[in-house]
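Q&A FORM
Asked by: J.P.
Topic: structure of Aryl-phospho-beta-D-glucosidase BglH

PROVIDED:
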Amino acid sequence: MSPKQPPAFPTGFLWGGATAANQIEGAFLDDGRGLANVDLCPSGDARMDVIRGRNTPLALQDNWFYPSHEAISFYKQAEADIELLAGMGFRCFRFSIAWTRIFPTGTDSTPSQEGLAFYDRIVDRCLEYGMTPLVTISHFDCPVALIKEIGGWGSRSMIEHYTRLCSALFQHFKGRVRHWLTFNEINMILHAPFLGAGVIIEDESLATSTIYQAAHHQLVASALATKLAHEVDEENQVGCMFAAGSAYPYSCRPTDVWAAREVDRDSYFFVDIQARGAYPQWAINKLSAENALPEFAPGDVELLAKYTVDFISFSYYNSRTVAGPDSDAVVAKGNLMKTAKNPYLEYSQWGWPIDPLGFRITLCDVYERYQMPVFVVENGLGMRDELAEDGEIHDHERIKYLADHIGAMRDAITIDGVEVMGYTSWAPIDCVSAGSGQMSKRYGYIYVDLDDALEGSGARKPKDSYYWYKKVIASQGSDLSIP
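REPLIED BY: S.T.
REPLY: Here is the structure written out as tokens.
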């Protein structure tokens, strides 16, 4: 008797969309919210230096514009926005908690009731519409007070402050939220240490050791969060989250192949620890040779080994192409992570390669490496959207991108046997771009009438992709036809 072929997308598959507090909420000091690292990240030429922890002032600058301060005002109209998401048939909504809405300074003894009440509104609205809340505890979010006082995640004391936040959230939302992510794109600390961990690089000669020490503190904190979540509610599921995208060698030249392998290892380093429970030996050897091996406290090894995650989640926007030393490869622009130009791929308006087969490759690589359920929690195309003469937004390019990528995910499930829990595309409603700080780099199914200066009515309007994704969800992914 031959085994039955499973359906393309199993019953209970979590279709939806993903957002981040600092990119949608606005109201950055309302109801007692404290200042966070993301509030200090301006748009414009200074943005990259700030998020990389170079030339990063810890105070607002009069001549800089900070788009996260207003964003799309989700804080004031969350219920209406969630109703629009429900109109697509969402079964899952991924959002993040703004740490400083709960603990404004990070050291507060009790959580803010105003902050908890706001997230109650979101969770209750999701449950009302039958949407599973998927909550990211820290999405590029660190209280500025803790950066000033102890240096952000460079200090081990951050673990205590973070787990206080986790405990408050697990207790408050017990029974209502059961899917949690500890850190968003944890591997981005390697490329944007201030954005990812509130870390400022004061001495370039110590940059590697500073970053990996901060990463170690986050990894320990993630293990402790997993422990706490299971203690509070045994039905809680905790996932890690990293920025994925398998690396291709620029050529079959061995130095290119090895360079691509090293890029993949750097990305998987974090997941190796969160899913397998230990530092890989290559990382121990490499960091030791560079005098950058993190300092472990007694019990860290046992803690990491015992409290591994329940599933692995990741973002996928594109694959990466990597060239070794002395290569003639052209460097592609537009991404925090350096990549060579792949001549076999088309590129987005912001210079990102478009590679749906790379999505399938990445799904297979992750699943075959860890043999754990995977959850795609970000995937989408940033592009400029314009109102057509008929007053509508015809985002055909986005629909094609999504159709090709969802089709590749379907192949990974049905042909390759990858166990995928769900798919929450980025971002269902237009928001401020984390990388560029722009509104014009739009991902949403729902258009928001704001420009890069955040001027406009703020009105919401469904795009063509809104109705297309609604059809995809209603058909359980079987209808990916493009109008």
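FOLLOW-UP: DSSP finds 15 helices and 16 strands in the chain.
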